[in-house]
Amino acid sequence: MTPNWPPLDLHAQVDTGIDPASLLDLRAVIFAASRSLEESERALARQPSDLLTIWGVGVHPGLKSALESYTSTEFRTLLDRSGYVGEIGLDGKVPSRLPRQREVFASILGELQAYPRLTSIHSYAATAEVVEELTRTPIVGAILHWWLGDAETTQQAVDLGAFFSINAASVRRSDLLDVIPMDRLLLETDHPDGNRYGSRPRQPGGITDVEVALARHHGIKPADVRLKVWENLARLVTMTNVGALLPPRVAAILTAARQAQ
What we know:
Blueprint: E1 8-13, H1 20-25, E2 29-33, H2 37-44, E3 53-55, H3 64-69, H4 72-79, E4 84-89, H5 98-114, E5 118-122, H6 127-136, E6 142-145, H7 151-159, E7 163-166, H8 174-177, E8 185-187, H9 208-218, H10 222-240, H11 248-260
Parallel strand pairs: 1-2, 2-3, 4-5, 5-6, 6-7, 7-8
Helix pairs in contact: 9-10, 10-11
């Protein structure tokens, strides 16, 4: 792979207690999703010690305690400290919780209309419902992570301006890759779940197998995939105007990606 562009992972679960040197040793730019506002607070307290990691503000829809403890006031306060929101969304595994999930998701989308961020959205067993909410409250910066929607729902999301972060599991859906434009693609591991069947070492930032699969599907080189996702992220950062909230080293890479376009 090209040495000029580090691996880019738009969604991974990372222990907030990890040593900064261990994260840097991964030699990848990692967007680390949080599952609750409490975890988000711990994650953001690490700044600015993590030079290549962007910690998110999140309320995981599948985590009952995160939903119950959510307040828009606390979310808004944390939002000022990060250019990344993740993960949020809807999860259809427990239908009885969908009303509260919708309430929290709608509240967060309302905040993001006023203060756009790079936003990683969970949609397991609720892809149509997520698109419905995004249609009702559209935002700039939506990134549908580990997307499993059908072709029609995917096209609706594309029409709404959404981006898609693809991992080792979702890259096997060639039907979706035919619908998602290349300029809307980003990469993720969703470590430790999304890369459990990927190539070793299975760690945040380990997206080489996804690059190879996408390159094969589109008939291009893996190095071209890596450059393209950096260009896509650079454009999305410009659209959301969150460059000043990213680590300086990451901002410098994005500047270079813009110049490469």
